[in-house]
Structures
1.
Amino acid sequence: MQFPPRPWMLRPVLWVFFLLSGLTVLAAPRPPLPPWPEIALFRWSFDEVYSTSASKSPSAATVDATLWAESWSGYALNRAGKHIEPVLLPLQSAGFLPVLGDQGTIRVWYCPAWSSGKGPGHEAPLLEMVSGNGKDAVTWWRLAFDERGERLVLSAQTAGGWADLAAAPVEMTAGQWRLITLTYAGTNSALGVDAQTLAAGAGLPVIPAAVRPVSALVVGS
């Protein structure tokens, strides 16, 4: 698979912010907050509806509820439903530095439609790093909730095959926003929820330079 270049997002990243929602709620959220005190090299807020709406004040008539959902700050990416189109953040395009480096931190605001115990009923990926050429594809690593929504698991390709690198016990509540944090390097990794680090583990595989132009971070698949 080929990923089109997006110059506005092609720069090194240490902190990446996303807003994801598993709910189908559609309302009029308050406008996005000003940037946080932390300096992120890349921030993806999914607030395109504010710039595409003629009135600059989105409403149910101008917002696609299958794609966008209300969040605590502007709009979020809606990942509810059985059949959803993947949202891709290209890792690198020709002539540009990678969006994600070999080490850094990714933060995701996430609002589940399920609570821990019952869970989503299947593995629910938040992030996946994938490479593909249109015929074959390989997943390098994945951050996902387990089927009962009781563990947040980071797994990856290793020398011995696919394996879990770190697993954090979590207590999620339907409709409640939580800040999920992945800190990674080639030597170690850590998982956190809100302001608490819950698990640490082995490092993520380094994406070979040859496949970086055909690699992407898949968000909320």
Note: Residues 31 and 215 are 33 Å apart (CA to CA).
2.
Amino acid sequence: AQVRQEARVARDLAGVRVRLLLDTLVDAGQGLRAELALPPVGDRPADLVGTPAPVPAERATSRGRAASDPALLDDLLALPHAHLVVDGYNVSKAAWPSLSLAEQRRRLVDALANVAGRTGAEITCCFDGQEGPRPSGGGARGVRVLFSVGEIADDLIRRLVGAEPRGRVVVVVTSDRQVADDVEAAGARVVPSATLVARVARL
């Protein structure tokens, strides 16, 4: 029975990943068509043989921004179906080191709720937990709060990124170099904790 349940969960996860990736691609394509004001296709490849390729106009992108620039985070979260994954205590201890952990959690989650309201991005905040009941400090509107149980938050973040379909914009906020290297290898973008701290300070 357990094997069948695990197989069913795996199938459900695969289905969710495929549907989410398709939604992301469709929305990105529609957004790009609207942004570039692309007309319906009239020409065919054979019509353009021998025609010099036009030089594309330069467009501002996020590539030129430093990882420490809060505007980079804004650019990434503006992309369709972006998912922001936050290394909770890594951020909160940098932002409010003198406060209790419970107060750090509350302030960070409240700040992330503001980010969620402004951007519409999916936001998941991960904190180190412990065996047994979860610590106090639940989520806020638009923010999924997860506590690691039987593992460290770093591994929870790795699993979250690994569960996402390739092609979805996943942004991980952490200054833990090992976590950053691992999630980048899995396809996520990494933004330092200080960048998010600077971003929420503007709210």
Note: Confidence is low (pLDDT under 50) at residues 55-63, 131-137.
3.
Amino acid sequence: MASWLPDTLFEIVGQGPAPSKDYYQLLVTRSQIIFRWWKISLRSEYRTAKPGEVKESHVDFLENSHLQVQVALIFGAKIIEYVLNLCQGKFDFLERLSDSLLLCIISYLDLEDIARLSQTSRKFAKLCMCDTLWEQIVQSACDTITPDMRALAEDIGWKEMFFTNRLQLQLQLHRRKQKLTSHRGAEPALGTRPPAHRPAGAVEARQAQLLSASLP
């Protein structure tokens, strides 16, 4: 499983707590913790200060309480907790799977589980709301997907379509057909010519000629 992991497991940058203006970077690789800092100051004694860097193995970082406190002060308690878990080999493999594979897995969950999963992280919230997932769910729930149903889903979204009851769905499909039919009926047929414009009185004069010709 560890072979699935990229070389860089986690990276974060941030500014030190006020009044400090210094910038920091924390990088967690598969084998090291890299902590970098840049001194930001207008004072003359710091103008030539070079960026600093500390590299430690995961084991050494777990034993370095001083560095852990620094990381916690700059990035917060949740970040240091997450980094400590990474150093202990507690990797979040699920988060690192491809979106296509995750969507396939999520599509087999119950609706309640999908709702709970969407609250765990921004990534899963996005995946649990995407049309690709709900298209798979609708296809598994329906025997067939007609072209009209697919067109309607493109208009309102697959999730909205899934939660629409059958009667409302039939009504929306019927309205969509009527709208398309009326729109097509309003358009002139291809190859037809509009009626020729005749000057006022021309029609009446022609009718009079025909009438006089028919009289004995």
Note: The longest strand covers residues 8-15.
